[in-house]
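Researcher: Sequence recovery benchmark, item below. Answer with residues only.
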């Protein structure tokens, strides 16, 4: 069994939040009140990645919030619904439309900070609308992978606090995409006596020469430009799901093939989550 498959058969039943105008009811002023929000890691795609701790916390929750990224990524919303149906069918799923952002900005940091602020304002309104501000109901986010690794939920909750809401959180760890990748390939993450850099496709070119690297959030195929042809690449997409796809080999031998495969999978499914390890 997997949360994602090539055809989604389970019904998605999210409540659509109407927080289209952040803090309009307060004229843009500070919020007040208290909300309890858990941040629960759900692993890289397999239902077996859900820990006993996560299941226990989820059963105390009343509402799960999700940023809805649109029709192309409906599978991600369906995965959350499936988790709730399995482990906590009493929990409401509330979808908040994810605000758009420039994907190729000149000033990446400024654009992402602005995007996080708009997300925080929309979510703050959704918290108050669906939880109230008295702490009587409990909310949560189901975070792909582990909340500590290349996920913005904890940063956005801090921005909600900066808007004036008191936010109390429990954070539940889970299987990371990195561990799912190395397990799928049956390999250790690090080589003896060698460090491993964790970075993004956008910053792979800044890697120190000869350093092994795990690369996440690569919107293209950065290994074609920034990896040595003699390096080995261990690549995986849709890890832990029925769609899981793996490739490995010398970059010079398989790099172009993987880039073409990635483009094909993205076209087929409307989105892709992939990760890879480069090592010399």
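Model:
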């Amino acid at each position: 069994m997997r949360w994602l498959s090539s055809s989604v058969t389970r019904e998605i039943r999210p409540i659509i939040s109407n927080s289209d105008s952040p803090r309009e009811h307060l004229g843009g002023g500070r919020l007040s009140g208290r909300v309890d929000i858990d941040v629960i890691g759900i692993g890289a795609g397999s239902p077996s990645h859900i820990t006993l701790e996560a299941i226990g916390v989820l059963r105390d929750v009343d509402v799960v919030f999700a940023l809805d990224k649109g029709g192309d990524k409906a599978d991600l919303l369906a995965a959350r619904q499936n988790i709730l149906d399995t482990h906590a069918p009493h929990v409401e799923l509330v979808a908040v439309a994810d605000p758009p952002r420039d994907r190729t900005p000149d000033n990446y940091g400024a654009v992402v900070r602005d995007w996080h602020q708009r997300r925080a304002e929309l979510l703050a309104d959704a918290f108050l609308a669906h939880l109230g501000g008295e702490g009587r109901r409990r909310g949560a986010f189901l975070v792909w992978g582990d909340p500590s690794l290349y996920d913005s939920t904890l940063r956005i909750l801090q921005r909600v606090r900066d808007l004036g809401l008191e936010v109390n959180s429990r954070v539940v760890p889970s299987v990371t995409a990195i561990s799912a990748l190395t397990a799928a390939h049956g390999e250790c993450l690090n080589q003896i006596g060698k460090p491993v850099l964790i970075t993004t496709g956008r910053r792979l070119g800044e890697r120190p020469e000869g350093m092994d690297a795990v690369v996440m959030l690569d919107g293209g195929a950065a290994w074609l430009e920034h990896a040595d042809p003699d390096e080995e690449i261990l690549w995986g997409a849709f890890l832990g799901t029925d769609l899981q796809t793996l490739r490995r080999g010398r970059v010079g031998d398989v790099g172009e093939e993987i880039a073409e495969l990635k483009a094909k999978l993205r076209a087929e499914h409307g989105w892709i989550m992939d990760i890879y390890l480069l090592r010399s």
